[in-house]
Specification:
single chain, about 375 residues, Rossmann fold, seven-stranded parallel beta sheet, three-stranded mixed beta sheet, about 40% helix, binds nicotinamide-adenine-dinucleotide
């Protein structure tokens, strides 16, 4: 298949590009380096330097003999995107190209505006380019479990049947986000659902939880220049990745408030597997298919305890410290999401075992000297 990966330089995008390329698909990757530029400007660079996209593609060709095509440009630029579509003629598009950080989206007016404009304009342009250039193509869009918030009822997989005054209908599950970033994801879903109804587009919306890990394939294990970015800062790092770095740095694990916040998590390898399953089993024309893309749920305290135990075993001076919660969120709540759809398609999860954590520690320990302590916590409040 011809696979167009938008945001293919990112934490999830690059491993996805390698996976599809390895399977023999024709892959084109688009990115405007927004993530790299924001990290540089805010002094929150990843744990180790990552070669730029052109260099990564060259390395990949050297190691595997496979070609990945690249275009550096902005999905918010419609002319550019139309050119990409004309050239690539995709069978499937994987859309990662968004500003993905909740704290960044709450930082100040400029950051909030960038998040809103970038995420919505990109999705809007992609939908239009599909209609104009590739109406049969399947869009796989990354959403987030954060769209649902933490309601006091079970979270269904995208849709809910409701009975009201004796009549029944099916609706998108109610959504109530906890940051502007998550709100843009809700707005994306609404845009997609609108255009699916109007134009019969084929869309899968993947409600993903926070991703952890670094191990993606044998090639990257052997040549670590092929690894994805690994951020450990408060703006762009995800919680488990951050805790492992904090443990290695001897920085107390930053549990926000009571630590009872429960979320669904997944291994980076499973993100790639889920996206592959969605591409291999496309949505129909006129269908917005939603999957809850997580493999298990944990409270923040449970994650901290796991990292504490494995970190101690490895000889680190790990401490857990509850700090005042900089976010507006429930610290103890009901959380029971359904996540059977991807397993029904064949997902075999890589769960968060001690062995997986040991693997994360091994890589982080190699780069211990590069950890900059004042990147770990910046106190972005909302
Ligand atoms: N990482 C997670 O834990 C997680 C969890 C849930 C959902 N998601 C979603 O998955 C997607 C990918 O996340 P990630 O962690 O890989 O983030 P990332 O920032 O590492 O990757 C996104 C990539 O898209 C690029 N990009 C952003 N705007 C662009 C634009 N207008 N044009 C071209 N390229 C653009 C960025 O430069 C970056 O390389 C995002 O949509 C994110 O919201 C991620």
């Amino acid at each position: 298949m011809k696979i167009l990966i938008l945001g293919g330089d990112g934490y999830l995008g690059w491993p996805t590009a390698m996976a599809f390329s390895k399977k023999g698909h024709e892959v084109m990757v688009v990115d405007n380096y927004l993530r790299r530029n924001l990290c540089r400007d805010l002094d929150v660079e990843p744990l180790f330097p990552v070669p730029n996209l052109l260099e990564r593609v060259r390395l990949w060709r050297e190691v595997t003999g496979h070609e990945i095509h690249t275009r550096i440009g902005d999905c918010c630029n419609y002319q550019f995107l139309m050119e990409v579509f004309r050239e690539c003629r995709p069978d499937a598009i994987i859309h990662y190209a968004e500003q993905p950080s909740a704290p960044y989206s709450m930082l100040n007016h400029g950051a909030a505006e960038l998040t809103l404009m970038n995420n919505l304009r990109g999705t809007f342009n992609i939908v239009w380019a599909m209609r104009e250039q590739a109406p049969d193509c399947h869009l796989v869009k990354l959403g987030t479990m954060g769209e649902y918030g933490t309601p006091n009822i079970d979270i269904e997989e995208g849709w809910i049947e409701m009975e009201h005054k004796g009549r029944r209908d099916r609706f998108l599950f109610p959504r109530q986000a906890g940051s502007l970033y998550h709100t843009t994801k809700i707005q994306d879903t609404d845009l997609l659902w609108f255009y699916v109804r109007m134009w019969g587009l084929r869309v899968s919306d993947l409600m993903q939880g926070p991703v952890y890990g670094l191990s993606v394939n044998d090639e990257a294990d052997l040549d670590q220049r092929l690894l994805p970015f690994f951020n450990y800062d408060e703006l762009f790092g995800t919680v488990l990745n951050r805790f492992v770095v904090q443990a290695v740095a001897g920085y107390p694990l930053t549990v926000y408030g009571k630590g009872g916040q429960t979320r669904g998590y997944l291994n980076l390898r499973d993100t790639v597997a889920c996206v592959e399953l969605a591409v291999d089993n496309p949505a129909d024309h006129g269908e917005l298919r939603v999957f809850n893309q997580i493999t298990e749920t944990f409270t923040v305290n449970e994650l901290a305890d796991k990292v504490f135990r494995v970190g101690k075993e490895r000889g680190h001076a790990v401490e857990i410290k509850s700090i005042e919660n900089p976010r507006k969120e429930k610290e103890e709540h009901y959380y029971n999401p359904v996540y059977t759809g991807l397993k029904d398609l064949g997902l075999t999860p890589n769960y968060l075992t001690d062995e997986v954590l040991q693997g994360m520690f091994e890589i982080v320990e190699k780069h211990k000297d590069r950890i900059v302590r004042n990147r770990i916590f910046r106190g972005v409040k909302w």
